[in-house]
Structures are given as C-alpha cells and as structure tokens.
Task: inverse folding
C-alpha cells in the first residue's frame, strides 16, 4: 500500500476532505479532474473513501469498557457485605466467571458457613437468573454426601446474580492425591466416590458439564465433594451464542471439555464420562492427555476433537508432569507404567473416546469397570474396540442434557422417590436399574423437532415416556411400569394435560389393582391423583365423591401407619375439599382444608407448594361464606410471604394473586384486581401450555373485571379464550364453566346480541341447576344473571321469578352484608324501579342501607353497580 | 523532595509545563496513572452493572480531582487531558498486549472466560493493532494521531479535543473522519 509522505499526504487529505461529502458520481468526477494520471494517488483516496464507508461505529465510542480485571483489587472489598441472609467473611477464590466468598448467615447464631459465588458483571444477568429460577429446585434437590449443596441464589442490590453453596474446606483432588502421595489403588477408590456422586446427579437428570480438579475438592477426612453442579449450565451463554465459534469453550474449562462440548453439540451424561476420563488420566499419570505446544484455543479444540490421547502407561514415562503439584514418587504403585498398562489404559481411553456412543454408556459403568479391575475381574473396556452395548443407542444420544434440565420437578421428584423406595430393598435393584435405563432412553429419544429452540420440552419428554410405556416397554417389570405411569400421569396433571394424565393414571390404576389389590397403598396413591382429576378438571363429581367417601378414612389410617405419605393424604384432603366446595358445602371444605394444612410439618418440601395452594383455596371457601376480610388477609399475607422468600414466580404465587384478584373484584376494586390477575396470567403463560384451567380461570376473572369497568371488547376477548380453554381441557360440569357462559352472556347482552345472550344465560342456569344444590350460591348467581338480563329486556315477571329465587337462596347461604347478597338486593331494587313498583323496591333498598358493604382494604372507587352489575361468581 | 498532596503536585507540574519544564509530562504520568487506577477501583465498586465503566468519565473525573482549576489556565487543562489520554492508552494497550501474550502462553482459561463476557463491538477492536497503526499515523500526521488518542482513549469530545490542540472543532471533526478511515483500513 502506498504510504504518501509530506506533500503528497497533504494532497491526499485535501482530496479526501473534498470528496468525502460528495455523491459517488461527483466523487468520480472530482478524482478524475484532480488526480490526472496519478493512479496511485487516486487509488489511495478511493481506498480511504471506501474505508470511510465502513467506519460505522469504529472507535466512535470512546467508551470501551475498561476490563474489570485490569484492577483486580477493585472487587475485593466485599467483606462484610450482605447477600440476602448471608454476610461475606472473606474471598476464597476467583475465576473468570466471578469470585467466591466465604460467608455466614447473618441471623444464625451458629454462623453456619457457606460459599457464595458472585457472578461478575458483564454476563447476561437476566438470562442467568431465568435459568437459575428454572433449575434451582432441581439443583437444590441434589442431596448427596459427596455433592456440595446449592442452597440459594439471588441478585445483589446492584443486580449481580449470586449462588449460595455449601462451603467445602478441602483441596482439589489432584493436589490432594499428590500431597498425600496416594497409591494408584487409593486414587482409584477416591475416583469411584466421585463417580458415585456424578451418577447420583445423572439419575436426578443433572449433568455437571464442567468437571475438573478445581471443582472436586477433597476434605481433610478424605471425602470428595463436587462443587458447582449444574452451574455451568446456568452460566452458559444463550443458545444463539452457541452457533458462534468454539462456543463451548466460553464457559467450559477447555482441557476437560468433551469433543461434543467443543463442537457445540448437545451435551449428555456421557460428556461427564469424558471429563471424568480426563481427570482419571491426570490422576494416574500426572499428565494432561494431549501434547500441546501453544495451548491456543484452536489448538486445544483441535486436539480434543481429533488427537488420540497417548496411552496413560506411555504418558506416565514422559518427563515433567504438567500439574505443578504432582511432584512425588514415581516409584512403587504410583505412576508405575506396569500398573497402568492393559486394563487402566483401556478404561481411561474408553471413557475418553471421541464419539459419545463409544464411551461407557454411563458413569456407573465406568466406575463399575474400575471396580472390576480392582477386584481382579475382567474389565469391559478393550483396546479401542467397538462397544456394541454402548453403540446400541448411537442415534439416541443426541439430546442428553438439554432434556435433563427440562424435566419438571414433579417428574424428577417422583422418580427420585421411586428410586429411593426401590433402593431400600436391595433385592429390587433390578427395578431401579430398569427405571434409570428407561429414563435415560426416554430423555435421549425425546423429539425436540416440534419446538423452535431445538430442545425437548418437559412435555416432549413425557410424551416420549408415555408413548414408550404404552408399548411393550418394561412389561417384564409391571410394578415399575405402573409406578412410572402414575408419575407421568401426575406430571401431565401438573402441566394441565388432563387427557394424557387420565390415560396414564388409568393404566397405572388398573395394573396396580391387579398386582396389589384395590386397597393397597400403591393403588390408593394412584387413585388419589386420579380423583383429584375427576373432582377438578374433569368435573366428574359423582365418581370423585364416591371415592373420597369410601376411601378417605382408609387413607387417613394408612398415613398414620406410614404406608402412605402425608403428601398423598394432603392431596386427598385437598381434592375432597375442592369437591365439597364445588358441591356447595364450603363449610365442610373449610374443615377439610384446615386438616390438610395441619399436615404441614409432615409433608415433603415439594408438597409445601401444594399446601400453599390449599391455603389459597381456604381463602376461597371463606369468601364463599362471605368472610371476605379473613380471605383477603390470608391471601395478602401469603403473597407477602412468597415474595419475601424468593424472587421466583411459580404457580403458588400465581394462584394467590388470582385469588386476591377475585376477592378484590367482588369488592369492587377492579383496577387493583386486574393488576393482580395480570401478573398471575403472565406467570401461567410462562409455566403452562395453552389449555390450562388455571389460566382459563384467571382470564375469566379478568373478563369479569373488565366487564365491570364496561370495557366490553377486552372482556369479550378474554372470555372467548376462557371458553376455548375450558372446552379443550374439561367438561361443562367443571365448576366454572357455567360462570364463563354467564359472563359471555352478559357481555353479549351489553353489546346488543340479546338472543345469543339469553341462550347462554339459560344454558348456565340449566347446568347449575343440574350440578349444584338449590342452596348453592353458584346456582343463585346463575339465576341472578338471567334475572338481570330479563330486567334489561323489560320482561319483568320472568325476571322477578329468577331474582327472587336467587335472593332467597343467598340469604340462607351468605352473610347479610356479603357482596353477593347485596347484589341480589340491588338487582331486585333495579327490577322494581324499572317496573315502576317503587313500593316493592323499598324494602330491598332498606336492606342494602342497613347492611353496608364490609370495609375491606381500599373502599370501592366505583360505588355500587347501578345496573347489570359485577357478576359475583368465581 | 517534599511530597505534596497529588492535587497540588499535579497542578504545580502543569504550571511548570506551561512555563517551559520539558520534564513535566514525564513527571505527571505516574501521578495521573495512580489517580486513574484509584478512580477505576471506586467506579467498579459503586457502578451498577448496566453502566459500563467508561474512559470518558475517568479522565474527566481525574481532572477535577487532580487539578486546582482556580490557579490553572486552559493550556494547563489541555496538557492534563493530553497526558491522561496517553496514560489511558498505555494502560489499555498494555492490558491487551498482556492478554495476547497469555493467549500464547498460560492463562488460557482466564482468557476464554473473559471472551465470554459480552464481547462488545468496542472490545472486539484489536487494541494492539490499533496502537501500532496509531504510531504509523503519528509519523504521517501527528495531529490526527493525537485526535484519535484524545477522543478514543481520553474520551474527549470534539470541542475538548479542539481546545487541547488549539484548533476549531470543525477541523477536529474533519481530521477525525479521515483518521478513522485511514486506521480502519490499516488494521483490517
């Protein structure tokens, strides 16, 4: 390139300045004129103009970030700072992703110590937090003596995510082995403990992804502790970033990363097998597996994906060991090539094969092979021969980890419980293996094609599992099969997939009845879940009623005997309470719920969520009885408690927000009501697929609030979606189905579609007459809505008939100042005034005046509904 | 030498500079460097993560803290910004260079992590190459090179750059545009 100097440079500047603001054709003309035959000058200017076209943003912002680790001491003064309930004592480590601090609970007299990992600035906080919210329950559930527990997480006041973990005092496993000059056999035994912990995590569908010495500490007592389980996943970049160059290296420590991680392919349990293989390689030889010159990212990733590692027995004879700690003896049983040749070479290299399918299929198999070696049995690993057993699933091993994280808590919880139960009986080991084998296959085969992210959703995994179980799969283990079907049914239930839930529950119940008998704990457990479906979504009240009346006493006594857990008794009480409420006996529902809530100390942590829902329902039953103040108080307290505990937004919070929204709606506080309902709606939409009943209920309540605000078009949009959801997910027997019809009817009536309106309202009355007793407020409100409509149509005698019936019923079931009763009186007052019978309106108006609305929260801003008021139904 | 508070010392050196002390820039450097480091530390502690730490703020704040404006002239101010921009350039380029070295030698893990941190457009500029190109530009056109240093490393506006170099902002703008085009071409 020409480097014009002096005069010529000034000429270049001059021409550049002159040309730069001209249009292209003008530029050409200018340059032709000015440069004459000086082609070099012309080329120089053209190339600068060309470059000028591309300077968008180039060094424009002076503000490039100052790299934070330019001033490493800057972040050090965190001692004494508070993270949630924890106070930082001192820094104990620092990595590229952030620093780790020793901290203690500020309010804990024993000052239990924890480690806090503070994610450094610059990582996508929102993304990390979202992942954390999604996975914290799964991660927090990992309860194994060799895994450091994830205790909590959150964000600092200035928005940095942090994780609270069990504090482990120990040293990295390689340093520990060397410092204590462990013999090869001792190293292998220690390594097997690590394998056991990783296996446990895999059974819980968590893959570590970043196994390396600094994540495996050994305590002074010689117990290994695995740190940061699942953290790599939480911190890994978003999917779109994964398409960029050597992406996995971003978070993975490169030398322990598997080929699939380096390539950005899906990560599986066998990726951890690989990383453990590298670790074992290093523990046995004191060497890293690949010989590298430069250690550039490119070189490392090429080595990982292409280079065959040297045999450990050869590598051990290499000079200087890489790890600075690995000084000691290369004699005796440690780092003696003789001990590595053969079995150990084969075992390590099998774990480290490039193709996941040719490695050990699981960490358990890897560990088992080491055990066989230690006890002198022939090992499975052969010198790089094709392992047919592993290759069997060659095409299925593509999903792996992605799936792992997506399986809902309930499924994981259920399977863990199952495994634990099964494990207690050693002779039933085969069952445990059958389950984990099944799970593994299911996860790996789940078809993610249907969604855009390319990752299987929980539903994909469940679909695959239930599809497999519907065939001959596991038919040699009918007990296991039935149990899995129950778990899957329960999971579908919690996902709002009621038909699929019923299919699986029915299959499980049928098999269990045959295997164990009708009154066995196994069968009862399945029926308890199933009955919840009848009494709730399916609206099959008669069947549910029969089950609870016949079996509740038995379930109570089985729970006392310990054959059925408190979780299932709680579910039964909850289901029966819902049913009783639907049947109009909110008083009995209240007492069942109080029994349910009293189980609090006995239920599992997962069921605590369920009890939160029970409390919300208790508030509903109180509201049914007109006890609004108590109801609102319960819900507000609950919401405050939930928000205080966690920033996570789960169904429990949504249920309470919806409950509060409905009470506020009845109290005439529509704006506040809508605010709460919308927050809950957002949560439901995030948690569930479309046809979810809770979402349907929420939308219906919003429609009611909007209706009350005369916002008919928005109300109609919401009630139409409600109706769609109800029709897709349930039957017209569902308690709220008629309510939706009524709301729809009243909207139609307001917008001039009177014939359709009347049809809907009469339909609602018909359904309610069929499925709730005469004294039930739900029947009264259906009558009231129809009466209101007829009043508007000036069909006074007809209207009077429905409104009087409604009023008579409500005065029996509700408090005198209950909004429902008040509305019924308002409607009668309106009727008689419109009918020009003021003397008949007078007594109702007097009753309204002598029973003012109970003061709950903020007073209504709208005053009493004058005409076609709020529908006081839920 | 009696050690003065940095503020007085810096102010005095600037005045000496205007009075013809040719050693002044060299003496100023370490003081400015120290101040910038300290400021950066404080920034890092109190800034919210969504506020990127910018060279701009640092240099200006260092000026307010280190220079007694009641006794100094515009020329002192210009000198100070000139030095501060140079210091920032040195700090940042050294950092980039050491990371290049790490890339070849050890410490690879750390670099991988660093690159995981939201690589902004600015970060993706090869500072070492830019620094080399700026040296070439200095030989060709000292003023353009200085404009880039003041703007890009010092975080000064065109007006402030004009003040430092005693030229009009319009000239700064014109020269800046060409310098960018030239540098961009050289380092790509």
Result:
């Amino acid at each position: 390139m020409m480097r014009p100097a002096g005069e010529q440079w000034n000429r270049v500047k001059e021409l550049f300045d002159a040309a730069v603001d001209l249009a292209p054709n003008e530029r050409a003309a200018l340059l032709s004129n000015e440069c004459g035959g000086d082609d070099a000058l012309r080329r120089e200017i053209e190339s600068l103009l060309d470059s000028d076209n591309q300077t968008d943003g180039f060094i424009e912002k002076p503000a490039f970030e100052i790299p934070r680790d330019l001033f490493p001491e800057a972040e050090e003064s965190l001692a004494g700072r508070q993270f949630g309930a924890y106070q930082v004592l001192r820094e104990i480590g620092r990595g590229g992703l952030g620093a780790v601090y020793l901290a203690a609970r500020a309010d804990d007299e024993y000052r239990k110590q924890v480690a806090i990992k503070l994610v450094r600035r610059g990582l996508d906080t929102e993304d990390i937090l979202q992942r954390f919210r999604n996975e914290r329950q799964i991660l927090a559930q990992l309860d194994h003596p060799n895994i450091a527990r994830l205790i909590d997480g959150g964000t600092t006041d200035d928005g940095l995510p942090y994780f609270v973990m069990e504090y482990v005092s120990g040293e990295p496993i390689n340093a520990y082995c060397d410092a204590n000059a462990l013999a090869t056999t001792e190293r292998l035994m220690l390594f097997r403990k690590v394998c056991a912990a990783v296996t446990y995590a895999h059974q819980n569908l968590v893959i570590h992804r970043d196994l390396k010495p600094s994540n495996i500490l050994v305590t002074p007592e010689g117990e290994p502790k695995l740190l940061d389980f699942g953290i790599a996943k939480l911190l890994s970049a978003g999917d779109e970033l994964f398409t960029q160059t050597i992406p996995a290296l971003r978070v993975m420590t490169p030398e322990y990363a598997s080929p699939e991680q380096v390539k950005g392919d899906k990560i599986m349990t066998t990726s951890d097998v690989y990383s453990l293989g590298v670790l074992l390689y290093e523990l046995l030889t004191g060497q890293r597996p690949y010989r590298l010159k430069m250690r550039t990212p490119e070189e490392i990733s090429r080595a990982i994906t292409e280079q065959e590692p040297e045999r450990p027995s050869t590598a051990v004879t290499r000079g200087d060991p890489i790890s600075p700690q690995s000084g000691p003896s290369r004699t005796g049983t440690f780092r003696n090539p003789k001990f590595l040749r053969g079995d150990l070479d084969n075992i390590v290299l099998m774990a480290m094969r490039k193709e996941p399918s040719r490695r050990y299929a699981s960490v358990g198999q890897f560990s088992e092979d080491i055990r066989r070696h230690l006890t002198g049995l022939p090992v499975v690993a052969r010198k790089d021969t094709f392992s047919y057993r592993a290759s069997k699933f060659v095409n299925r091993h593509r999903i792996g980890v992605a799936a792992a994280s997506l399986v809902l808590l309930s499924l994981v919880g259920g399977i863990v419980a199952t495994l634990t139960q099964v494990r207690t009986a050693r002779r039933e080991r085969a069952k445990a293996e059958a389950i984990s084998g099944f799970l593994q296959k299911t996860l790996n085969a789940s078809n993610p094609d249907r969604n855009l992210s390319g990752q299987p959703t929980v539903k994909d995994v469940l679909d695959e599992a239930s599809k497999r179980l519907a065939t001959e799969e596991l038919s040699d283990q009918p007990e296991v099969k039935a149990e899995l079907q129950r778990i899957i049914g329960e999971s579908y239930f919690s996902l709002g997939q009621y038909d699929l839930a019923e299919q699986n529950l029915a299959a499980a119940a049928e098999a269990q009845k045959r295997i164990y008998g009708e009154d066995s704990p196994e069968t009862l457990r399945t029926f308890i879940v199933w009955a919840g479906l009848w009494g709730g979504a399916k609206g099959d009240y008669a069947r549910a009623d029969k089950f609870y009346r016949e079996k509740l006493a038995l379930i109570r006594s089985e729970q006392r005997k310990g054959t059925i857990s408190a979780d299932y008794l709680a579910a039964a009480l909850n289901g029966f309470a819902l049913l009783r409420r639907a049947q109009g006996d909110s008083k009995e529902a209240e007492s069942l719920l109080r029994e349910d809530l009293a189980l609090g100390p006995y239920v599992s942590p997962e069921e605590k969520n369920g009890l939160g829902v029970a409390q919300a329902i208790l508030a509903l039953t109180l509201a049914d009885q007109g006890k609004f103040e108590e109801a609102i108080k319960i819900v507000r307290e609950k919401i405050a408690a939930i928000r205080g505990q966690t920033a996570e937004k789960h169904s429990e919070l949504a249920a309470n927000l919806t409950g509060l929204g409905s009470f506020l709606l009845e109290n005439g506080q529509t704006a506040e009501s809508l605010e709460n309902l919308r927050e809950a709606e957002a949560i439901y939409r995030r948690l569930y697929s479309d046809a979810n009943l809770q979402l349907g209920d929420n939308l219906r309540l919003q429609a009611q609030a909007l209706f009350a605000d005369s916002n008919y078009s928005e109300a109609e949009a919401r009630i139409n979606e409600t109706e769609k959801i109800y029709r897709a997910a349930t039957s017209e027997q569902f308690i709220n189905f008629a309510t939706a019809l009524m709301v729809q009817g009243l909207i139609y009536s307001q917008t001039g579609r009177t014939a359709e309106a009347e049809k809907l309202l009469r339909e609602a009355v018909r359904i309610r007459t069929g499925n709730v007793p005469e004294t039930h407020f739900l029947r009264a409100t259906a009558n009231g809505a129809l009466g209101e409509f007829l009043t508007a149509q000036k069909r006074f005698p007809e209207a009077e008939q429905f409104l009087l019936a409604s009023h008579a019923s409500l005065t029996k079931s509700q408090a005198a100042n209950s909004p429902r009763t008040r509305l019924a009186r308002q409607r009668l007052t309106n009727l008689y005034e419109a009918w020009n019978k003021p003397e008949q309106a007078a007594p109702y108006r007097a009753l309204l005046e002598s029973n003012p609305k109970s003061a709950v929260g903020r007073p209504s801003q709208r005053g009493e509904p004058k005409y076609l008021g709020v529908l006081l139904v839920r | 030498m009696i050690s003065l508070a940095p503020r007085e010392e810096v102010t005095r050196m600037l005045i000496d500079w205007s009075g013809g002390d040719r050693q002044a820039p060299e003496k100023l450097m370490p003081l400015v460097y120290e101040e910038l480091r300290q400021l950066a530390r404080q920034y890092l502690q109190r800034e919210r993560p969504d506020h990127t730490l910018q060279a701009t703020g640092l240099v200006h704040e260092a000026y307010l803290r280190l220079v007694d404006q009641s006794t100094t002239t515009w020329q002192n101010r210009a000198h100070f910004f000139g030095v501060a921009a140079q210091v920032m350039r040195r700090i940042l380029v050294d950092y980039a260079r050491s990371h290049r070295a790490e890339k070849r030698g050890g410490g690879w893990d750390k670099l991988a992590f660093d690159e995981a941190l939201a690589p902004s457009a600015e970060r993706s500029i090869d500072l070492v190459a830019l620094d080399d190109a700026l040296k070439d530009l200095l030989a060709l056109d000292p003023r353009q090179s200085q404009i880039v240093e003041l703007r890009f490393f010092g975080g000064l506006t065109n007006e402030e750059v004009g003040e430092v170099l005693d030229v009009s902002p319009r000239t700064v703008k014109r020269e800046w545009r060409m310098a960018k085009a030239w540098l961009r071409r050289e380092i790509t």
Q: What stands out?
A: The radius of gyration of chain B is 18 Å.
